[in-house]
Design brief:
With 358 residues, the protein is α/β, with parallel strands linked by helices. The chain contains twelve helices and 19 strands. The strands form four sheets. Strands 4, 6, 7, 10, 11, 18 and 19 form a seven-stranded mixed sheet that branches.
């Protein structure tokens, strides 16, 4: 079967090969025919080494498709069923799951260390235990989440990661209050979803911050009340908040420099929500006096900060009701053979989300 493979960490292009095989099928597993998958910035971060991932590997973790086969012991799933792929399934038994913090379950991360593909030359890993830049993938049954028949595969794929992450950051983690002021730094697919979440929560002002003009223009269509380049953020803070700072600031880039800017843009007693996934060796510096004196809440948000199954259902319900726009998040479409074109669209900021149609 065909798949897009990164041979070594640090390479900036993928090779589309037709000699890849999905392996590991058996009890508790399902085999899925991938129909659509989104390109998320985390895929690019794994390719560059910012996020740890064994190589060679197949990127992709934001996918949807239909079940080809079901292993022994799997219940509630059947051949032909339409599913989205959850890269962080909850085991239901660990301390995090028992506390109701299923987004912190480590069971899914353990899958990332087990190859689920192979080639004539050896084993191949799937990013985040999945690897959706391929025609077929074998995953734990918990990764296959049934979707209604009226949800297109491309929409379901977005719900599987970017939409859930952004919406959840605003709704679950930060709990944006009606009438509040919000700034979102980084307006790709996740940042735009955070903007939509803040709008749903009733924020009065939502300032989108991004260096790419097309993304700033898009943010206004999704609910931002103003969109500025990074060098104009200080002026926006002064104009909108009288210099005090925003009630909520979302950092959706994953770099200490933007996190520091986000901290300084948050009012005293306000909330900084860290959504971007950054590198292990990139440290955010805060002095102990400001940490105490400013009483700013610093809230990381992992995968939307809530039960992902409920978050999927909520996103689909909001989309059906016309309360969020998911179709317009997909600004580009390419076949699997055009995956490197999609990577360029991501790196240049030309795309909010590129859908790879398989």
């Amino acid at each position: 079967m065909r798949a897009a493979v990164l041979h070594e960490i640090g390479q900036d292009k993928l090779e589309v090969l037709d000699d890849v095989e999905a392996v590991g099928f058996g009890p508790g597993k399902v085999k899925i025919r991938v129909r659509a998958t989104g390109l998320c910035h985390s895929d690019v971060s794994a390719m560059s080494g910012v996020l740890p991932q064994p190589a060679p590997f197949i990127p992709g973790h934001e996918g949807a498709g239909e079940i080809l086969d079901v292993g022994d012991g799997v219940t509630g799933l059947a051949q032909g069923q339409r599913v989205l792929i959850s890269w962080l399934p909850a085991c239901g038994a660990c301390p995090s799951c028992k506390r109701g913090q299923t987004q912190l379950c480590l069971a899914g991360f353990m899958n990332a260390g087990t190859p689920n593909f192979k080639r004539p030359g050896g084993d191949v890993f799937g990013f985040a235990g999945t690897g959706t830049f391929t025609e077929e993938v074998v995953v734990d049954a918990g990764c296959a989440v049934p979707i209604p028949d009226d949800v297109p595969f491309d929409i379901a794929a977005l719900v599987g990661c970017g939409v859930t992450t952004g919406l959840g950051a605003a709704i679950n983690t930060a709990k944006v209050e009606a009438g509040s002021s919000v700034a979102v730094i980084g307006c790709g697919g996740v940042g735009i979803s955070a903007i939509q979440g803040a709008r749903l929560q009733g924020a009065a002002q939502i300032v989108a911050v991004d260096p790419v003009e097309s993304r700033r223009e898009a943010a206004l269509k999704f609910g931002a009340t103003e969109a500025v380049a990074p060098d104009a953020l200080a002026d926006a803070k002064q104009r909108i908040t009288g210099g005090e700072g925003f009630d909520y600031v979302f950092e959706v880039v994953g770099k200490s420099a933007t996190a520091r800017t986000a901290y300084e843009t948050t009012r005293r007693g306000g909330t900084l929500c860290v959504v971007g996934a950054g590198a292990l060796d990139d440290f955010l510096q805060l002095n102990m006096f400001e940490l105490f004196f400013d009483e700013k809440r610093i809230l990381p948000s992992m995968y939307g900060g809530g039960d992902v199954l409920r978050s999927y259902e909520r996103a689909i319900a909001l989309w059906r009701a016309g309360r969020i726009d998911l179709e317009s998040l997909i600004t580009h479409r390419v076949p699997l053979a055009g995956i490197n074109e999609a990577l360029e669209q991501m790196r240049t900021g030309a795309a909010l989300r590129t859908c790879i149609e398989i």
